Amino acid sequence: MRQGDLQVMNADVPWHLFDPIAYVEHNYRDMWAEDAEILRIVRDHFVGHFRNRDVGRITGIDVGAGANLYPALSMLPWCDEITLLEHSSANVRYLESQVDSYDTNWDQFWNALCEHETYGSLGLDPRDRFRRVVKVRQGSIFDLSRHEGQWSVGTMFFVAESMTDLYEEFTWGVERFMRTLAPGAPFAAAFMAHSKGLQVDGHSFPACDVGESEVRASLEPFVHDFKVQRLQDAACVRDGYAGMILAHGWRRNAEAGNPAV
């Protein structure tokens, strides 16, 4: 999104005007095929990491949670605590309204996770566990530098490319997310490919035009053994983007070119 010839920075956007109810109604009232595929991949990634592993206390973070609960649901069986970090005051209110007993539209996303025997055999009451482990925190992705290495697992869905027009801010957002994770922590991050911005209830929100190569380049300094993939044959949920990109892997133990970190 541009205002004349000026690019729109994250700080310029009236995020308090974002309407989470309209957003959920359009995007998450029903589970789209793209989200089902993302859930399958992320679920299998986390199962592969955590199953039969004694890792002590596990903390998770969903950076820029917005009005989307399914990243937190994907971490739910494994975490003793999950932080939903969100900047928009409107989205914070929505998330807080979901903690005690989230809306029934999210059941289909949990059920999709439970198609894997490991999730399905855990015998969890997801709403009870969600209530006990999820904490909503208002804050900016750019303030995360104070929390380097704090979380054991992390997700960031449709955030870094959907908060600014500036490529520099996109890369900073990815970096802040990755640096919050402890060495070896599994992660999953999703991006809108070549997005032109978002319209929600009459208000425009920015986007940075990125594809697989930009996503890969932003992640490479911080991760190892990771995969970036474009979801195939995806029917677009809305106009103005070219599909979805999913990245998953692990936070590296030492950053490229700086083994002391």
What is the strand and helix layout of this fold?
Elements lengths: L1 E2 L2 E2 L12 H8 L5 H18 L8 E5 L6 H6 L5 E6 L2 H11 L7 H7 L3 H4 L5 H8 E5 L14 E5 L9 H13 L6 E7 L5 E3 L2 E3 L6 H8 L3 E8 L13 E8 L10
Main attributes of the structure:
Rossmann fold, 9 helices, disordered C terminus, two-stranded antiparallel sheet, disordered N terminus, about 260 residues, alpha/beta, about 20% strand, S-adenosyl-L-methionine, 11 strands
Could you state the CATH homologous superfamily? Vaccinia Virus protein VP39
Helix coverage percent? 25-40%
- Indicate the proportion of strand residues: 15-25%
Q: Strand tally, please? A: 11
CATH topology: Rossmann fold
Query: Low-confidence segments, ≥5 residues, pLDDT <50?
Result: 1-6, 256-261
Distance between the termini: 36 Å
Helices and strands, in order, run as EEHHEHEHHHHEEHEEEHEE
Main sheet: strand order: 5-4-3-6-7-11-10
Q: What structural class do helix, strand and pairing data support? A: alpha/beta
Largest sheet: 7 strands, mixed
Could you tell me the mean pLDDT? 85
Question: Into how many domains do the coordinates divide?
Answer: 1
Q: What is the level 1 CATH name? A: Alpha Beta
Q: What is the tally of helical segments?
A: 9
CATH architectural name: 3-Layer(aba) Sandwich
What Rg do the Cα atoms give? 17 Å
The outline comes out as globular
